[in-house]
């Protein structure tokens, strides 16, 4: 994950978690978002474990309430697909981590990556469809129906964007 992708992902997770929480627990969500994948750049698959250790040390230095610390650690510990959040904000955060996939900025990142291995725009569109279907299945494991409704609407919008790409050849450049 590049630094740019990391920053974008964290911002999108904050935005989506706040949509789900109706703007509540903004501090906890923001801190959790910036910390949850911090160790991913260094530690790869074990990033949850290392991010949790880092977050625990970081939180000891803050004056946040015990409740806020519990929420932040729950968000970080359980944001992965196999996580089982123990707080409602933890559930929203886990859903937001998956929802962050369904954004136009992220679509372009995937499209650039898939374009290198695709022979046609149709093949690229198929790869994007597959990616979104897999992400939707992951999201369905999170117990947040609202997030699924949001994701389905966003997939429709994103499909409209990349379905127009196959018509690019028909555009006359004057
Ligand atoms: Fe994440």
Order of helices and strands: HHHHHHHHH
How many strands in all? 0
Taking all Cα atoms into account, the compactness measure Rg is 18 Å
CATH fold descriptor of the largest domain: Hypothetical protein af1432
Mean pLDDT: 90
Shape: globular
What structural class do you assign from the helix and strand content? mainly alpha
Number of domains: 2
Number of helical regions = 9
Ligand inventory: fe (ii) ion
Summarize the helices and strands and which ones pair or pack:
Elements: H1 3-20, H2 26-36, H3 40-43, H4 47-60, H5 66-77, H6 88-99, H7 104-115, H8 121-140, H9 145-165
Helix pairs in contact: 1-2, 1-6, 2-5, 4-5, 5-6, 6-9, 7-8, 8-9
Fe (ii) ion binds next to helix 1.
Key phrases:
174 residues, mainly alpha, Hypothetical protein af1432, 2 domains, 9 helices, 0% strand, binds fe (ii) ion
Commentary on this structure:
- With 174 residues, this protein is mostly helical.
- The protein folds into two domains: 3-99, Hypothetical protein af1432 (Orthogonal Bundle), CATH 1.10.3210; 104-169.
- The protein is built from nine helices and no strands.
- It has helices at residues 3-20, 26-36, 40-43, 47-60, 66-77, 88-99, 104-115, 121-140, 145-165.
- Helix 1 runs antiparallel to helix 2 (26-36), helix 1 (3-20) packs across helix 6 (88-99) and helix 8 (121-140) runs antiparallel to helix 9.
- The longest helix has 21 residues, at 145-165.
- The radius of gyration is 18 Å and the shape is globular.
- The site of fe (ii) ion has 6 residues, from helix 1.
């Amino acid at each position: 994950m590049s630094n740019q992708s990391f920053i974008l992902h964290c911002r999108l997770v904050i935005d989506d978690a706040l949509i789900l929480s109706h703007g509540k627990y903004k501090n906890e969500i923001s801190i959790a978002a910036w910390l949850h994948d911090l160790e991913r750049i260094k530690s790869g698959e074990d990033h949850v474990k290392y991010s949790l250790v880092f977050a625990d040390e970081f939180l000891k230095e803050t004056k946040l309430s015990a409740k806020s610390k519990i929420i932040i650690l729950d968000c970080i510990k359980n944001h992965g697909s196999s996580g089982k959040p123990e707080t409602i904000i933890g559930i929203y955060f886990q859903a937001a981590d998956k929802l962050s996939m369904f954004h136009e900025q992220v679509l372009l990142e995937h499209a650039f990556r898939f374009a290198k291995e695709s022979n046609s725009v149709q093949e690229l569109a198929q790869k994007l469809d597959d990616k979104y279907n897999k992400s939707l299945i992951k999201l369905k494991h999170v117990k947040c129906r609202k997030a699924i409704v949001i994701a389905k609407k966003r997939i429709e919008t994103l499909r409209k964007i990349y379905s127009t790409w196959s018509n690019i050849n028909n555009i006359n450049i004057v």
